[in-house]
Task: inverse folding
């Protein structure tokens, strides 16, 4: 592997990760060769639609996959092989070094245990706190995550809290042992729009205060904007484009990234601006054809897109993309105008002559 | 459902605890067997549905055993066996021999031939009881499920009351009130079957009464009676039929329990497995003439196991859970 | 929650009414109630004997029998019209007056007081056995779902559920008490310890098949629970598997077991009739069977009513317990 020469060793390094699930209809190739690095104190956003493999990637890192999953590839945390640590049942690694926040606070808290106990449990197990110490600390943690009336909340059950408050509990739980790496899997998808921003800002502030690294998994590029240092866009189990956030947002190359950006509303859009949804549906992951997985939904698609899976260009750490006709390049422009002229892409997607292309 | 959700396989739908609880109670009451459900199999691969669609070798083995028992039950008097009520020459409590395959009991009667004759009452009572339960419970359930409203509430209450007795205790109340003839014993166990079967048919009716073909029949002006008989009955009979063997297993055990307590069909020539087992269950007999109880125990166990096993395979084959639960 | 409890209470009383009415009807509406209660004595022409119009060959015995008949009439208010009779009978039962056995002139309440403890101990032990077996069994099966142990236990529980409990009882009695002599073969009431020890085999006979169904339920629920997010969360917190199993997954997976607890107690009560017979335990179950054989209808009726009412009330309590166990239901 070639690394950037001057940079320190990454905190987390993933190389060529593959995850397959055998099912009765054939193997589901959920993750196909994902590689990335995450440095101390940085945030990496992994963006993609549901089914893109982003959550499976996160679960693989945390060793949360069902036993039937077939995993290959390397995951290194601080020089240690994470999968070996997990297999050996190493104590006080997960939860202390790296931990995770889940998507749905409604289901990620144990319904029959009090909130305080659930936070205290981690402290007692990993740090050997006594019950009363741990409960006191739990209360402090609730205060840190901005929970109103923390003293009262510790003795409440999850169902007594709103979604936003529950997610704060989950965050407090994750932060209890001061982990160095936090994986947040769609942390705000299941909560009210009004509290989404609060939670994201909270996570961001906590990360900064504590010098944590974070993997932020989301389907919404807007969430990544302004919070991530690097962004990896995933599609059909592969990283299709990755770059530092600025480059990705302002100089994207992959048509999928472009489409994702178009599908979110922006503050500077004119009133009644029509958002462009991405046509079609995410691909099936069982027996995928040897072609660019995005081609059937891509307005740039050409004949060669259907001929093989495009490789991710460039080196790890640089702006990389897997596209034969990247947007913003001459090849891309040519492909787009050819498709417009024909009214249809090589994969059979109809293209309006005056589309939203740019 | 996209691939990722499928493989990470979480039951996302929030289950209403109370509804699922009612379903469970009722499944427990009907089947007594609680089998692993497909939804909750942890491996995404799960069991191959193609495999489940086959009945399998052991199913046919069970069926063969049941057919043999049924044949023996029907033809017992015609078969070349010792008279089950006559004292054999060899004497009492003889161990198994070529003459008396299962030995002889305390009165010197042939245990093999008694065991074979025992199938008659057990299977006849079991069969009658489940048919009675299906006819009475089934029609009550369909009518309640179709018409809903007050009628449904009344029928539901009757079922609830019937289920409020521990089964054997209700049976005892009935057998204490009437003469213990074959008919009364069969009816007793049949009454026990009414409520569970009725609940099942009511639930299936509720499902099917919502379907398009019933609505269509109604729009076309079909009368209620016609809809029930022509549209609902065939659909409701499938899950009920698939549960017949399981119900029969429960009925056979119930008859055995009554017989064991001396409360089944009365009379010297009324041979039943339960009665045979209790006859040899005295401590001395158990120690010195184990064969007197163990042979009927074994035959009864294999029969009940076959009923349960075959019944369960059939239930799975017709996927009754999906239809009814 | 209050409305829920209220609705359950109304249903409870409706069912209690119906259940007692069934028992009442069995005695009063099917045939002559006097015959039901005292049997052949009902044919005595007591008025005739008293008036001296009927010749009485066995004066002493007959007059005592006539006392019995009179007592029975008074006890069951047979001179009153049926609806009033029902109400009076109910209020007698409610005040603990269950009638008198006319076979041996013993008040039924006394019989019950004498026999009930054994049966209660037996039922409690049976539930303890079944839960004690089912919880570890279910946990291991779920932890290694679809592996060898789990598949094996599927077969085993299927087999256990197919053994009629009288057959299981006889086999266990033979093997463990007679053949290997680990447990006593007969009931012992000398000391409490001895009593409990002699009830182990009966309790196992009752509890083992129940353990099999509990185990299936627990396994299925545990497998579902183990896929829940909060279990993933607990794993992400770095807790060890067994701690997650017992601290996080077990309790939310016990709902099904609790749900069928009440119903299964009904099955146990039925089973206790048989098991008390096999092991010679002088409990309620044995008493009721003896009473049926002796045509001692007052005893049968009283015990059936007692058992049915207990069963209904127990299921009502389980309902409440269930709500307590699941805070989510509590909130509704």
Result:
């Amino acid at each position: 592997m070639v690394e950037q020469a001057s940079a320190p060793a990454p905190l987390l390094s993933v190389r060529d990760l593959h995850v397959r699930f055998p099912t009765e209809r054939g193997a589901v190739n959920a993750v196909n060769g994902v590689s990335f690095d995450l440095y101390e104190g940085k945030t990496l956003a992994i963006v993609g639609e549901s089914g893109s493999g982003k959550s499976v990637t996160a679960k693989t890192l945390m060793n949360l996959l069902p036993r039937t999953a077939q995993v290959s590839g390397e995951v290194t945390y601080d020089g240690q092989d994470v999968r070996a640590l997990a297999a050996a049942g190493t104590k006080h690694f997960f939860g202390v070094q790296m931990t995770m926040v889940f998507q749905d606070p409604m289901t990620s808290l144990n319904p029959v245990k009090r909130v305080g106990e659930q936070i205290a449990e981690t402290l007692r197990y990993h740090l050997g706190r006594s019950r009363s110490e741990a409960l006191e600390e739990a209360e402090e943690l609730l205060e840190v995550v901005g929970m109103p009336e923390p003293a009262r909340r510790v003795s409440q059950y999850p169902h007594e809290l709103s979604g936003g408050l529950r997610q704060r509990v989950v965050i407090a739980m994750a932060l209890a042992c001061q982990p160095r790496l936090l994986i947040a899997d769609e942390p705000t998808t299941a909560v009210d729009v009004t509290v989404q921003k609060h939670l994201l800002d909270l996570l961001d502030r906590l990360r900064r205060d504590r010098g944590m690294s974070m993997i932020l998994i989301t389907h919404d590029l807007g969430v990544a904007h302004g919070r991530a240092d690097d962004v990896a866009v995933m599609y059909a189990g592969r990283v299709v484009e990755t770059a530092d956030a600025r480059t990705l947002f302002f100089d994207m190359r992959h048509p999928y990234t472009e489409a994702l950006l178009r599908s979110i509303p922006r503050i500077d859009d004119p009133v009644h601006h029509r958002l462009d949804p991405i046509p079609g549906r995410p691909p099936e992951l069982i027996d995928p054809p040897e072609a660019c997985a995005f081609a059937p939904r891509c307005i740039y698609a050409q004949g060669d897109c259907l001929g093989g899976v495009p490789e991710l260009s460039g080196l790890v750490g640089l702006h990389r993309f897997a596209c034969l006709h990247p947007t913003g390049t001459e090849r891309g422009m040519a492909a787009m105008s050819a498709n417009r002229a024909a009214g249809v892409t090589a994969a059979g997607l109809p293209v309006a002559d005056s589309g939203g292309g740019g | 459902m996209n691939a990722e959700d499928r493989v990470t396989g979480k039951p996302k739908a929030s289950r209403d605890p109370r509804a699922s609880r009612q379903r469970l109670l009722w499944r427990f009451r009907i089947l007594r067997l609680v089998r692993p459900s497909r939804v909750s199999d942890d491996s995404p691969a799960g069991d191959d549905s193609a495999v489940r669609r086959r009945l399998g070798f052991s199913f046919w083995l069970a069926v063969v055993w049941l057919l043999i028992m049924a044949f023996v039950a029907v033809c017992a008097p015609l078969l070349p066996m010792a008279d089950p009520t006559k004292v054999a020459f060899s004497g009492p409590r003889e161990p198994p021999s070529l003459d008396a395959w299962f030995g002889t009991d305390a009165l010197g009667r042939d245990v093999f031939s008694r065991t074979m004759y025992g199938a008659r009452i057990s299977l006849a009572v079991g069969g009658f009881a489940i048919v009675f339960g299906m006819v009475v419970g089934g029609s009550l359930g369909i009518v309640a499920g179709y018409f809903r409203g007050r009628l449904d509430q009344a029928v539901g209450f009757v079922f609830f009351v019937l289920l409020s007795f521990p089964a054997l205790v209700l049976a005892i109340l009935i057998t204490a009130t009437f003469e213990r003839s074959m008919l009364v014993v069969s009816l007793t166990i049949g009454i026990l079957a009414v409520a569970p079967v009725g609940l099942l048919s009511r639930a299936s009716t509720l499902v099917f009464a919502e379907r398009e073909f019933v609505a269509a029949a109604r729009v076309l002006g079909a009368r209620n009676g016609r809809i029930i008989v022509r549209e609902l009955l065939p659909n409701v009979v499938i899950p009920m039929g698939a549960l017949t063997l399981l119900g029969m297993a429960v009925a056979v055990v119930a008859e055995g329990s009554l017989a064991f307590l001396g409360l089944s069909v009365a009379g010297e020539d009324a041979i039943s497995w339960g009665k045979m087992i209790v006859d040899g269950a005295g401590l001395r007999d158990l120690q010195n003439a184990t064969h007197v109880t163990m042979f009927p125990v074994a035959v009864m166990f294999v029969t009940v196991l076959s009923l349960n096993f075959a019944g369960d395979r059939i239930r799975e084959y017709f996927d009754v859970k999906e239809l009814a639960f | 929650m209050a409305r829920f409890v209220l609705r359950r209470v109304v249903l409870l009383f409706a069912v209690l009414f119906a259940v007692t009415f069934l028992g009442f009807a069995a005695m009063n509406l099917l045939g002559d109630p006097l015959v039901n209660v005292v049997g052949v004595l009902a044919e005595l022409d007591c008025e005739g004997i008293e008036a001296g119009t009927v010749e009485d060959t066995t004066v002493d015995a007959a007059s005592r029998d006539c006392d019995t008949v009179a007592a029975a009439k008074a006890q069951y208010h047979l001179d009153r019209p049926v609806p009033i009779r029902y109400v009076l009978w109910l209020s007698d039962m409610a005040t603990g007056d269950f009638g008198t056995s006319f076979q041996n002139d013993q008040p039924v309440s006394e019989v019950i007081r004498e026999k009930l403890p054994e049966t209660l101990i037996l039922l409690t032990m049976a539930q303890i056995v079944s839960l004690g077996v089912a919880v570890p069994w279910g946990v291991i099966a779920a932890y290694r779902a679809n592996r060898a142990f789990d598949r094996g236990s599927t077969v085993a529980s299927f087999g256990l559920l197919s053994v009629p409990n009288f057959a299981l009882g006889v086999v266990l009695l033979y093997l463990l008490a007679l053949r290997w002599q680990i447990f006593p073969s007969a009931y012992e009431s000398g000391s409490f310890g001895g009593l409990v020890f002699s009830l182990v085999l009966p309790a196992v006979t009752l509890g083992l098949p129940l353990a099999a169904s509990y185990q299936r339920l627990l396994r299925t629920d545990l497998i579902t629970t183990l896929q829940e997010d909060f279990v993933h969360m607990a794993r992400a917190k770095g807790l060890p598997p067994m701690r997650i199993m017992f601290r996080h997954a077990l309790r939310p997976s016990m709902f099904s077991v609790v749900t069928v607890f009440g119903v299964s107690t009904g099955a146990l009560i039925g089973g206790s009739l048989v098991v008390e017979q096999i092991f010679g335990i002088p409990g309620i179950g044995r008493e009721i069977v003896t009473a049926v054989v002796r045509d001692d209808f007052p005893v049968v009726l009283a015990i059936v009513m007692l058992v049915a009412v207990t069963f209904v009330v127990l299921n009502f309590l389980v309902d409440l317990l269930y709500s307590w166990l699941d805070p989510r239901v509590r909130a509704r």
Observations:
- The interface with chain B takes residues 21-24, 28, 30, 50-53, 55-56, 59, 65-69, 106, 282, 284-286 of chain A (CB under 8 Å).
- The radius of gyration of chain A is 22 Å.
